[in-house]
Design goal:
- The chain starts with a strand and ends in an 8-residue tail after the last helix.
- The C terminus is likely disordered.
- α1 links the parallel β3 and β4.
- It has a domain of 188 residues: Alpha/Beta hydrolase fold, catalytic domain (Rossmann fold), CATH 3.40.50.1820.
- The protein is globular, with a radius of gyration of 17 Å.
- Helix content is 42%, strand content 18%.
- It is an alpha/beta fold.
- α2 crosses α3 and α4 packs antiparallel against α8.
- Keywords: Hydrolase.
- Pfam families: Abhydrolase_1.
- One of its GO terms (molecular function) is hydrolase activity.
């Protein structure tokens, strides 16, 4: 299995396809497996690099608390291992936060930056949502954690219209939300406390795409608008009638936006 060592911890990664490189950074509850359905299309003519952060997926668990800048170095370690340069870096939510910090520290390695459903700081409102998730995780009960975290990730219309799919997903996630996963989630959530790059955004001078979802209740539209205003060389797209989990609610729009921005030198169009 493809692992690298960073600070004596195993970091899991995968490489799919050949061509221009895109490195994908997961949201907080995700892993490399979350992108399985998108890999055939994204890797058709491009090299796609997936990785699990520490405390995610197949990567090692941590023994104590840490900050997100540790995950920045995890990404750097994978890039160094694969000898990559001028990559396209994509992050969603937690992964977008890590991507922003990576861009500030290692922008010389980047070609383009893509941020979906991302915030530039953990404000008081978001921190208290995180603490609610921590409280739910501390119960070590899968149903409690699901009910507190999952419904708000989706837009109400999608959730209600796709309740059969959601109920199937509930059964799958109950098996995922075991004690070790929930303990890892607590560390991941706490790692984002104190995160704030809002006043540094103007230092990011690479081509950047920021994408919002109209009904994102975790990282609302105003958060991405702030990033768009802060990064000089940036573009902005709003996905209508969509919640925080944009790639699941609007998979066609997700793929078209991502490939259009990265690999096609023309105006991005949503179909």
């Amino acid at each position: 299995m493809p692992f690298i060592k960073y600070n004596e911890k195993n970091i899991y990664y995968e490489v799919h396809g050949e061509g221009e490189v895109i490195v994908i950074l997961n949201g907080i509850m995700m892993s490399h497996m979350s992108w399985k359905a998108f890999i055939p299309e994204l890797s058709r003519n491009n090299k796609v690099v997936l990785l699990d952060f520490l405390d995610q997926g197949k990567s090692d668990k941590m023994d104590s608390l840490y900050k997100q800048d540790l995950q920045v170095e995890v990404v750097k370690a994978v890039i160094d291992k694969l000898e990559l340069n001028k990559i396209n870096l994509f992050g969603i939510s937690y992964g977008g936060e890590v991507a922003l910090q990576f861009a500030l520290k290692y922008k010389n390695l980047l070609n383009k930056l893509i941020l979906f459903n991302t915030t530039s700081n953990t404000n008081s409102w978001l921190q208290d949502i995180g603490r609610g998730w921590i409280n739910a995780a501390e119960t070590k009960d899968a149903e409690t954690f699901y009910n507190v975290t999952i419904p708000i990730i989706y837009s109400p219309s999608f959730y209600n219209k796709n309740i059969d799919w959601m109920n199937k997903r509930r059964k799958i996630l109950y098996k995922v939300f075991k004690e070790d996963f929930l303990i890892s989630m607590i560390r991941l959530i706490k790692s984002a406390e104190g995160y704030d790059v809002k006043e540094k955004l103007n230092k990011i001078d690479i081509s950047t795409l920021i994408v919002s979802s109209e009904y994102d209740f975790i990282t609302p539209v105003a958060e991405q608008e702030d990033i768009y205003k802060g990064i000089p060389n940036s573009q902005y797209i709003l996905i209508r009638e969509c919640g925080h989990a944009s790639m699941y609610e609007k998979p066609n729009e997700f793929i078209n936006i991502l490939k259009g921005y990265l690999f096609v030198e023309k105006e991005i169009k949503i179909v």
